[in-house]
Specification:
452 residues, alpha/beta, Rossmann fold, Transcription Regulator spoIIAA, OB fold (Dihydrolipoamide Acetyltransferase, E2P), five-stranded mixed β-barrel, 13 helices, globular, binds S-adenosyl-L-homocysteine, binds iron/sulfur cluster, binds FE3-S4 cluster
Amino acid sequence: MIQRSFHIMTFGCQMNANDSDWLKRALNARGFTEAATAEEASVFILNTCSVREKPEQKVYSLLGRIQNMTKGRDDVLVAVGGCVAQQVGRGFFNRFKQVRLVFGTDGLASAPQALDRLVEEEQLRMSLLDFSDEYPEKEQEWTGDTVPSAGFVNIMQGCDNYCAYCIVPYTRGRQKSRSSVSVLEECTRLVERGMRDITLLGQNVNSFGQDSHGDGTSFAGLLHQVADIPGLERLRFVTSHPKDIADEVIEAFGTRANICPRLHLPMQSGSDRILKMMGRKYDTARYRSIVDKLRAARPDLQLTTDIIVGFPGETEEDFLQTLHLAQEIGFAQSFSFNYSDRPGTRAEMLPDKVDKAVMQERLMRYQDWQAEYTEQILHGMVGSTQAILFEGMSKRSDSDAPGTTWQGRDVYGQLVHVSLPEDNDMAGKLLPVRITEAKKHSLIGEKAGEPW
Ligand code: SAH
Ligand code: SF4
Ligand code: F3S
């Protein structure tokens, strides 16, 4: 008999992470519990990503591993969701006997009910792969009394951009904006329950409202409405496509105190020739001018980006343009990847694929620069005082300071560890902290004021 004990494995972007968090809460509300270890679980859920080649192969090998791990057991149910599920669909049923549910992006909302049924009806298999016409509103998100100090709110589904290399429009479907009223309601409810830091989430938040599902509210309008919620200390949003960022959004960085001075603005390449082939619809001059306007509005703004190295036809010269523009702008962090052919995309058909070794060498050069620069930025923060919003107790164990070490984030989203002598519960509190030391990926600080 299938037990109501589950284990979720999540791959891919923040949207998948957010979907998995929702699914956990929805399953808990239906009497399922999260297993302490994978071995103890009866229901396995894989929330998958297909943006690059490797994560897709990971799904197949993971399904194989689950099969081996649970050999001889008849109480195992596997569900595959997310972007690979949307693509492969019922194909999983043929390859893996244990897989009895596949669900895509829009199927997620009904996955908890489906799992409820599948646990009882052991011969059944179900697929939830259709794209719905409307933004699929989900059942009540939070049932408990407490919420974390920081969290995400989804504002749209899908993407209409069809960048030449990208599979997302195929796996997540057309862009569907959520109603601004629902977004505002959810944010207000979360802040009332204690959330102080919200990140609005979508593949291209800047084009919020600009689809047939929009209710007349633009992203700038939504941003101001959410920023107005009393008690919301920090507001962020991700991801921004440079072609769609409106001047009103740029200006908001200067006029709204609770919009955090950090923006993820995927550049992808610093070569106009490559950007054109990618179908990104901006050139480097436009990208630079957006950056200039942003920094004029908010001088302490930190920028982060996504970079693809080795797009078909990329020459050493194109790559150097990318590296040099990144250095000129000074990204605080980059998510950089080797180009990976995705089935059915325009880039897949392009000639002049870049040799894997060449691509890897370029990626290493880029990442070496970025690692060094990120460290430099973190070192530059030593001596400054930052407001830290605490998430909970620190997972670092190398501190021998007395008392408890807490971890939280500064306004840029950087991880900061602080040892505090008293035993007060700091989760959800803001505290002025003087930064005393920079590690490779995080900061250490000491109390420099009273919490609020
Ligand atoms: N909507 C976001 C990106 C979502 S995908 C945006 O447009 O900015 C996240 C990142 O994965 C992309 O920014 C891109 O850098 C990378 N990516 C997407 N497809 C890829 C591919 N085929 N090969 C390598 N990297 C890819
Ligand atoms: Fe992919 Fe481009 Fe859409 Fe981003 S904007 S998800 S890179 S198609
Ligand atoms: Fe991956 Fe799908 Fe996100 S392909 S990056 S999980 S939208």
